[in-house]
Amino acid sequence: MTFKKALPLIVASLFLFTVYPLSYAVSLSSRKEETKQKPVYLLSFLRENTAQQNAKMAAKYRQTLLERFLKYTTYDSQSSDSTPITPEQIETAEKLYDEIKQFGFPTLLTSHYYIYVDIPSNISWDAFSLGFSCHYDTTPDIPGKGIKAQKIKKYNGKPIELQNGHVLSTETDPYLKEMIGKTIVTSDGTTMLSADDKAGVSILVTFIQTLAENPSKKHGPIQIVFAPNEDVGRAAEFIEGTPYNPDIAFDLDGGTDGELTLSNFNAEKVIYRVYGVNAHQSQAAQNGYRNAWTPACELGAQCAKEEWMPNRSSGDQGYVELHHMNMVDGKSNVAELDFRLRDFNQKNIESWKGYADSVANKISERFDVKIEREVYKQYQNVSQNIRPEAQRIAENAIKQAGLTPRFKKERAGTTAAMLMLKLNRGAYTLFTGQNNPHAFTEWLSEEDMYHSYLVLFNLIDETLRTKKWN
Ligand SMILES: [Zn+2]
């Protein structure tokens, strides 16, 4: 047997007798550690600290986090469909920028009021960069000026009566049962609370503060962005891939304990325009008059079939909706059909477009009218471009905080989905403790918000444990 022939055998026996027992021993010892490990609800990252010191420090940051949240609820920051940026958002962005830059990390406020924070790596090896996003605007859909947050300590499980007849109760909101004995925050009932997404903003600012005050905490590069205009669907409009280009990204805008949104719909708006010809109808057979509406209705009926309607869709199924039809201009006789396509799988959207085009061609010939199509991509499924390590990293990080990961598929869009379209970079959406967003009965779980903050440090640790492959 030549050495060349014997080589595989040598490698195999080397693996069997050295590598395998070694890796077995490693996995055994880590399993032992795992069984010893109890849910950790405090900042155990400072190895030199005693448990008591850690608990004290954790309590301090937990209090800071809640106080910060209550402070941010007093910042009016509603976005609006009708202006590029509202004065309230500008004021909020400036206040946040002033607060964050004091922590000493490179911080940038752009002319479009995005705030970027760049926390440089403090380790010697090349680790994954982590990215976190959130939005500081609040929805224009319900009153949001002069928010008066109410902190309820040791919630007793009874219905909470807010002003204007709004009631929060365990009957309508079963998750409140989990909050008995804990701290929750509600509005007074005259406005929203704005936990969507002031919870995310508070978590990230407190995270930055904690890293600034505890430089011994080892971490790779971290990039953070605070975005405006999310609640009017424009969070990604002016985002820039230069300051925000992480390997693994998370959006802090999710719901309750342990929740992680792994995917969402792809969304496209497809407009078909049917061009009729204007002339007097009485001589239509001779003068070339063509009505636009009959072919438009035909196109609508064939391309938005009953079985594709939103109310016939659930779970993993997507839908096609003929959202509206309108006459662009009565004089020019042009009918417009506005279709909304939603699907987890982009292939289904592409195949609908192929089908609709062939229908449009036939109708155009049959009715002798011109038909044109325009496509607008609205947002994209984040799972299409995400590092394969990201889910395991997130899952472990949530478990390390003593929580059970709950994976979710969002039958809509997320901020991450808007960023995905602009930056072609997927991100999971992490829970923040917000409940009932965009409602007078919006409320916050203080504990869930704190857990989310803890998960961020576990994400750092999990990222450092994961080898970076390019
Ligand atoms: Zn939000």
Description of the structure:
This protein has helices at residues 3-36, 51-73, 87-101, 195-213, 284-287, 293-303, 346-367, 389-400, 415-423, 446-465; strands at 107-109, 115-119, 130-135, 150-152, 160-161, 167-168, 184-186, 222-227, 248-254, 259-264, 266-275, 319-329, 334-343, 370-379, 406-410, 427-431, 434-435, 443-445. By secondary structure, it is an alpha+beta fold. The protein has two domains: 51-264 and 382-465, Zn peptidases (Aminopeptidase); 266-379, Alpha-Beta Plaits, CATH 3.30.70. It has an eight-stranded mixed sheet, with helices on both faces. Strands 4-7-18-17 form a four-stranded antiparallel sheet. β17 and β18 form a beta hairpin. α4 packs across α10 (446-465). It binds zinc ion (ZN). Zinc ion (ZN) binds at residues 135, 196-197, 230, 253.
CATH-scheme architecture of the largest domain? 3-Layer(aba) Sandwich
**Percentage beta strand:** 15-25%
Low-confidence stretches: 1-41
Radius of gyration: 27 Å
